[in-house]
Records
---
Amino acid sequence: MNFNQLFALIKKDWLLEWSYPFSLLSHLTGMVVNLTMFYFLSRLMPDQGSYFNFVVVGLSCSTLFSAALYGLSSSLRNEQLMGTLETLFASPISFGSLLISKALFSMGYAVLETLTYLTAAAVLFGFSIHLEQALLLILMILLSVTAFLFMGLLSAGWILRFKRGDPASWFITLATQILSGVFFPISLLPHWLQTASSVSPLTHALNGIRPLLQGHQAGFDQTYASVITLSLFILILGPLSLAGLKWSLRSCLRHGTLGDY
């Protein structure tokens, strides 16, 4: 892997993003407005602060992990639509460097969004961030991001080969909005939907991260199940996603459809 190439690719994406400063500013402002809506919504509930804290962690984690899932596929799709994907493959840039640069850019942007959520919630609405168990929190975040990155590789392979209609992204969007406990506890769902929620990595990520970030006295025993489940997701999705991406790339090169969109 050529680090100069990697840095140049990331720099290209950042310069392109920062060339539209109003778009970035309006996006971050919209996030603060979104937080404000949930803050006043939480005041309708008996335990006001509890629900707002619940949603802040859910939104922050969802933002970070969605970037790991959608970042690669959306970046590759943009390159397809701009007609630059085939040019990138024809240049002396390895496919690995291209994927890593796209993933790093997406995750860097998502970290900025996540920090915006947490900072705005803390400064404007009194949300407390607890880092007493920082090492365990970092472990949970790394496992969660890795699991979603592997799912993102499956999504990227689908986009390369079929261009549209990625079913993995549709499923995770559904799981994020309804099944994973981002906006409300999954205990409110019917029993069969609670069972279905266990299929989503986001459910297990939130179960492990939420008590740590909110300052609950959660030791390793309480997050053990989340750590094990996410590790199993990684072990299963890792080989599957790499094989799927490799097949998609070979198929595109064989049929000459890499530049199609």
---
Amino acid sequence: MPGTPAANLLTGLGIDEVLTRRMRSGRGTSSDALGSTLALSDPAGALPTQYTYEPFGSTTITGTASSNPFQYTGRENDGTGLYYYRARYYSPTLSRFVSEDPLECERRNGKDLYAYVSNNPVNLVDPSGLAESGPGSGGGRDVCDAYDKRCRDKLPYSPGRGGGGGGGGIATSYLCGAGDCCREFPEGPAENCTRKCLIDEYPSCENLDGTSHWQCTIRIHVRCYQRCGYKPWPWQVPLRCYKTGLGF
């Protein structure tokens, strides 16, 4: 009948977080921690269709055939052997994306622009095709520890203003305030990409002081915003970041 939905979704706050998918046939879904569909259930609670996955997403379906496209990490299997990850397509057979990262956040680090979640598919997902996320994510809040470590490494040798050794007081002040700012910074594909880009770029400014350090940090912020497509509004930036002079 025209206008009748094929399925009803109850979603959570996370990207691709489907709590339940109820089809007209009465079937529901169950998922694992990565969001991959494990089984379809019928009204009686039986599991007529089940899915198993290899680490990089090669999928085996057992039981009754289904039109359900949401399989590995909750993304759509388009029926050609590829999964749709919004910005680009992913091939479980190749264990990699079929096109380059359009943001090119990793090019300067010499990383593979086709790689899927830094070759860690057991712990990470990349729902946008732009930035991995999840436990151990390369762009989530866990990367903020890098600032804390650099701060600790410099403070014991810091005769300068603000405890700044090596790169001086201003450089160390940036490092020692950046960790808290980084953790309060929002989550999201562009935000996670920006967060990681800034941490990777900062060493180019680390041994500068005064105006040179300030100008260098401005340059890396602009560069990372452009690469990652991040367009911050003032109310999205935590107050702690302004106090640190980071200007996220």
